Amino acid sequence: MSIDRETARRVAKLARIKVEEGDLDALAGEFNAILGFVEQLNEVDVEGVEPMVSVTPMRLKRRQDAVTDGGYQEKILSNAPDAREGFFAVPKVVE
Question: Is 10 within a domain?
Fold first, then answer.
């Protein structure tokens, strides 16, 4: 894949980056170099390579996956301008 001047202009516009007309060719060249590096990565054989979480072997800390209500209903509703029967009360918006 090759990036031309027009594509570089469009990418700069989408990224909200102001690029002068004279710099568009250089920007297109930089994009092409980046895409070349990405294509090189596609050539690497990663069959059988486990994904890494860290450079040092370690097990992630995990908690028990349990569904709870949090136990903070009173604290949360104390901040509400209007609460009724354990729920937030909001004005009616649909008639």
Answer: yes
Decide: 5 and 32 in contact? Cβ < 8 Å. Answer: no
CA 64 to chain centroid, in Å, comes to: 26
Q: Please, what is the angle between helix 5-14 and helix 24-42, to 10°? A: 90
Q: What are phi and psi of 83, to 5 degrees?
A: -130, 135
Mean pLDDT, the chain, rounded, equals 89
E strand or H helix at 84, and its extent?
Answer: strand 83-84
Residue 75 lies in a domain: no
Q: Domain count for the chain, please give it.
A: 1
Q: Hunting for tokens 């349990």 — which residue is that?
A: 66
pTM of the shown model: 0.50
Domain that holds residue 38: 5-43
